[in-house]
Amino acid sequence: MQIREIHERLGARGALPCHVRRLLRRWSQALPPGHGRLRPEDVPPQSARAEFAAIEAELAGLATVAAEHPGEDGSARLLVRLADGQTVESVLLPRDGVCVSSQVGCAVGCVFCMTGKSGLLRQVGSAEIVAQVALARARRPVRKVVFMGMGEPAHNLDNVMEAIELLGTVGGIGHKQLVFSTVGDERVFERLPQGPVKPALALSLHTTRPELRAQLLPRAPRIDPADLVELGERYARATGYPIQYQWTLIEGINDGPDELDGIVRLLAGKYALMNLIPYNTVDGDAFRRPSWERAAEIARGLHRRGVLAKLRRSAGQDVEGGCGQLRARMLGSEAT
Ligand code: SF4
Question: Of all residues in the chain, what percent carry a pLDDT higher than 90?
Fold first, then answer.
């Protein structure tokens, strides 16, 4: 379901935009029924009431939690079942954040990602994206929404932008607290600056070498990492928020001195933060995670050379590792 459909259906029954906004606010913020005092002008016309009730019932059934796995770090992984039976993952993050999925599967095929192995199964509707936030809010406060779950948001841009617009308005999330995470796509740099709600941007870089990037992210747009950083810098300066660069550290692949020199060359002096995330080793996988000490040394080295770098664990790593692994395990257990 798309948010634009809700506006169209209710508008056709004579509901005013303020009535629709009220419904969307209550739903997206998971407010209790009857929240707030109703003024006479807030009551939808008789002609629209049945449609309001029908839409509220549809919104309530858009997404349900099929499994919940709390982590030791205060996070929790949710396996979210959509109305057609497909599943996506959301992660409740420590400090009032939620990570949501924008696609079922993903076409980019990053070699270190479980989600990428399934290919793209379908797009997640804009209302299904917001429903993940509403599910999270029914469990704990949410002040930050990151689009870093399953899927590449740039490949579902209309729906993701629609969800961002709702969350950044009636959804009550600060614009800087909405984080659009992408491998980099020209359309993102064209469209995001035009939207009424401008999210912060996270760019998955992973290497400074174009040929290695083509191997690690096989179906990402072929944008030279140096050009990607230039596009990111322009967006950061225009919005006033730094770009977060994501770098999955893989031992012997992208943790050597040549890459660190490349990061310094591209990012020193930029309005940027480098997040280093040690690879989450999966059984039978060809890639290895560097030791925490080695990763910490890399972060310190970058810092000394003028790049703001942070070492991060991916949230809920003790539960089911990286994005897509909980879903993969649940599908495996359903198949047996
Ligand atoms: Fe897609 Fe992100 Fe996984 Fe890459 S890391 S395959 S972009 S979900």
Answer: 81
Residue with tokens 């950044």: 168
For the chain, give the mean pLDDT: 91
Please give the structure tokens belonging to residue 145.
């929404």
Q: Which residues line ligand 1 (CB under 6 A)?
A: 106, 108-110, 113, 115-116, 150-152, 183, 323
1-43 pLDDT, tens digit each: 999 999 999 999 999 999 999 999 999 999 987 676 566 667 7
What are the structure tokens assigned to 85, written together?
């039976």
Global pTM reads 0.93
Under 8 Å between Cβ of 272 and 243:
yes
Asked if 197 contacts 168 with a C-beta cutoff of 8 angstroms, the reply is: yes
Given the residues 51, 89, 165, 320, the one annotated as active site: 89
pLDDT of residue 57 exceeding 90, the answer is yes
Three-state secondary-structure class, residue 268: coil
Residue 165 annotated as catalytic: no
- Distance from the alpha carbon of residue 104 to the mean position of ligand 1, in angstroms: 11
- Block residue for tokens 């109305």: 83
| Distance from the Cα of residue 260 to its chain's centroid | 27
Question: CA–CA separation, 281 vs 313, rounded Å?
Answer: 12
- Residue 38: the pLDDT is 61
The size of the chain, in residues, is 336
Contact 245, 205 (CB under 8 A): yes
Atom of ligand 1 nearest to the CA of 151: 8
Ligand 1 centroid to Cα of residue 204, in Å, is: 9
Of 89, 99, 106, 275, the one to substitute when testing ligand 1's pocket (max ligand atoms within 8 A of C-beta) is 106
24 Cα: distance to centroid of ligand 1 (angstroms): 30
In contact, 131 and 145? CB cutoff 8 Å:
no
Active site residue 68: no
- Per-residue pLDDT reduced to its tens digit, 164-214: 999 999 999 999 999 999 999 999 999 999 999 999 999 999 999 999 999
